[in-house]
Amino acid sequence: xKTLLEESDIQLIxxxxxxxLRPALNKQKQSPDDSMLNVKDxxxxxxxxxxxxxxxxxxNGIPFYKIDGQILFRKADIDKFLQDYHFPAITERQxx
Length: 96
Description:
three-stranded antiparallel sheet, 5 helices, mainly alpha
């Protein structure tokens, strides 16, 4: 059995689908980046050496997970960690 739909019916169906998907799509956009990085990925991301990473994990100086001996980092945690070391530029007005 074949059903033919009017253009207005197709438009209405499309709008209803978008309306039901919009909350999920907006939630995805607002969620932090929860991707996981291994040591090599983090070295590339931060442009530091492996020894720098290992020395920080040894003293819990950087947030990490240890799963079955493998060290992993959540990108969102690393970005938050970096914010703690952010120093804003001094403007001319602040210098005076």
